Amino acid sequence: MDYAEYKHLTFERKPHGVVLITIDRPDVLNATNDRLHWELTEVWRTLDADDAARVAVVTGRGRAFSAGGDLDMVDANARDPRRLGRILREASDIVYNMINLDKPIVSAINGVAVGAGLAVAMMADISIMSETARITDGHTKLGVVAGDHAAIIWPLLCGMAKAKYYLLTSDFIDGKEAERIGLVSLAVPADQLLPKAFEVADKLALGSQQAIRWTKRSLNNWLRMAAPIFDNSMALELLTFMGEDVHEGLQAIREKRPPRFPSAQDARG
What pLDDT, on a 0 to 100 scale, did the predictor assign at position 72? Predict the structure, then answer.
């Protein structure tokens, strides 16, 4: 795809081959609908084919990075099993296409990040987060398995104990805590976020391109070894989309109340 063909991602060329990618659905906090979810798989191929691009910086328009999946899209996934094969492919492609792009990616996490948006934020090679931004994987709160990206990278970033705590509870994490546990590379005051992201991007863009890209390729072999773990988590996530809990989780989010999952009701007898 050419940059002009994207509907929900905008692009701005910066000096030294840095490309700023902005997730651009600010009226819904940059939530991912079907089109944006697909675009987040393709953009890494577009960057790979762009000989002038050396480094990508990805952020969100307005006050959010990306507030998870559009609820109508989530509802459709829970009601139509025929969609799940496509979702499986796309969710996998977001992760694998970011891993396989040798050019470095810097995420500038300016606000809330959940779901596929969080996958992009965390799979970036260098993640820089506003101290006041908040992230959550959020899957278990919806009633589905934490697939997408978490199983492949969270234990490597912050260790198994913290990964299990935050992925099982779906608790939110602010930028300061995310940096403290190693989940993100850096946390900075909100007004310094993009300047710091561009400072890092320029350093990468002006460095030895082959050395930097092949270092990324080598380090990402840790993630490639974890591919069976990721594939399993994705399959289990989509399996839970066919269960009862996801409908209650979705309704609870819409009604802004704690969920009453059928599986938890059964456990209490």
Answer: 85
Q: Write out the residue range of the structural domain in which residue 111 sits.
A: 3-255
For the chain, give the percent of residues with pLDDT over 90.
89
Q: What does the pLDDT look like over 35-75, one tens digit per residue? A: 999 999 999 999 999 999 999 999 999 999 999 888 888 88
User: What sign results for the dihedral spanned by CA atoms 22, 226, 126, 45?
Assistant: negative
Residues 107/60, Cβ–Cβ less than 8 Å: no
CATH number, residue 234? 3.90.226.10
Beta-carbon contacts of residue 176 (< 8 Å; ≥ 6 apart) = 131, 187
DSSP conformational letter for 145: -
Q: What is the pLDDT of residue 267?
A: 52
- Under DSSP, the state recorded for 143 is T
- Total number of domains constituting the chain: 1
Task: List the alpha helices (DSSP H) in 159-207.
Answer: 160-169, 175-180, 193-205
Residue 80 counted as domain residue = yes
Burial of 243 (0-12, 13-18, 19+ CB in 10 A): middle
| CA dihedral over 248, 64, 188, 43, signed as positive or negative | positive
Q: What pLDDT, in 10s, does the model give residues 222-266?
A: 999 999 999 999 999 999 999 999 999 999 999 999 999 999 986
15 assigned to some structural domain:
yes
DSSP 96-107: HHHHH--S-EEE
Instruction: List beta partners, residue 37.
Output: none
